[in-house]
Amino acid sequence: MRLAGKRVVITGGNRGIGRAITERFAQEGASIALLARRDISPFIEHLTAQGCSAIAIQTEITDYASVKKAIDHIAALWGGLDILVNNAATISREGVLEMSLETWHSVMDVNVNAAFYCSKAVIPFLTNQKSGTILNISSVAAKCGDITAAPVYGTSKGALTTLTRSLARQLAPYQIRVNAIAPHAIVTEMSNQWSDEKRRQVVGAIPLGRMGTVEEVASAALFLASDEASFITGETLNINGGYLMD
Ligand SMILES: NC(=O)c1ccc[n+]([C@@H]2O[C@H](COP(=O)([O-])OP(=O)(O)OC[C@H]3O[C@@H](n4cnc5c(N)ncnc54)[C@H](O)[C@@H]3O)[C@@H](O)[C@H]2O)c1
């Protein structure tokens, strides 16, 4: 098992890409703590029935005090932490002319500030043990922008990619790796919001000619979080069927 004994914190791990990462990491022997907005006990029961040590902590990830309390609690329970996956995100479809300032701040709060808050709360445990890894789920929108999402979405993901690189540099002396994944066109509730026309356009521009699956993203997440990626840090890995090759 590639994550045996690893203690993992995941945000937004109860659905979509986050759920697939949670399930895959659990199968590989990790203990899982999910920071969730609401009660997700049926999913926790599902994980524990498979032999995984899993807990959910109700947390407001856009509030640093709430995040710190949750992370300190998990670290005390498990005697430390090894892996953080900043996966939770929100999106807006408003164009730049209609988009309110409230939308701007709420998307930045979830997609950037919460990832920073979780990282800030987790890092002391990783630096103490001089090991660990952080994985941020960014997006192709960080690199290309997006014509159907509000400009704040790509901006937030660009910030996450830069946060990845900055933390990778600052934490490298502690042997802590920080990487990101930039998915595109993965079948989840987020992409289910697309019109048929948008889906046709998107798939038409993907050399592999199809949408991606959450399991394909989870496989890449597992690689980057595992010791197999021990010399990789500051990287943002494309998972996009060849849509963007950079
Ligand atoms: N699906 C795609 O094609 C695609 C493409 C590029 C990037 N991504 C990224 O992948 C990640 C997962 O997206 P997904 O497609 O599974 O989307 P999703 O909407 O299915 O899941 C998003 C998760 O984030 C959580 N979340 C949202 N707002 C939150 C908040 N305020 N507090 C706590 N949790 C919150 C949700 O509960 C959910 O678990 C996101 O970071 C997203 O930006 C997805």
Fold blueprint:
Elements: E1 7-11, H1 16-27, E2 31-36, H2 41-49, E3 54-58, H3 64-78, E4 83-86, H4 101-129, E5 132-137, H5 141-144, H6 151-171, E6 176-183, H7 189-192, H8 196-204, H9 214-225, E7 236-239
Parallel strand pairs: 1-2, 1-4, 2-3, 4-5, 5-6, 6-7
Helix pairs in contact: 1-9, 3-4, 4-6
Bound molecules: nicotinamide-adenine-dinucleotide (NAD).
Structural class: alpha/beta
**Number of discrete helical segments:** 9
Uncertain regions spanning at least 5 consecutive residues: none
The rounded Rg comes to 17 Å
Shape: globular
**CATH architectural label:** 3-Layer(aba) Sandwich
CATH H-level superfamily title:
NAD(P)-binding Rossmann-like Domain
Average predicted confidence as pLDDT: 97
SSE string, helices as H and strands as E: EHEHEHEHEHHEHHHE
Amount of helix = 40-55%
Distance between the termini: 32 Å
Beta-strand content: 15-25%
What is the CATH domain class? Alpha Beta
- Strand order across the largest sheet: 3-2-1-4-5-6-7
Biggest sheet features: 7 strands, parallel
CATH topology: Rossmann fold
Count of the separate structural domains: 1
Can you list the ligands bound to this structure? nicotinamide-adenine-dinucleotide
In total, the number of strands is: 7
Would you kindly provide a brief summary of this structure?
This protein is of the alpha/beta class. The protein is 47% helix and 15% strand.
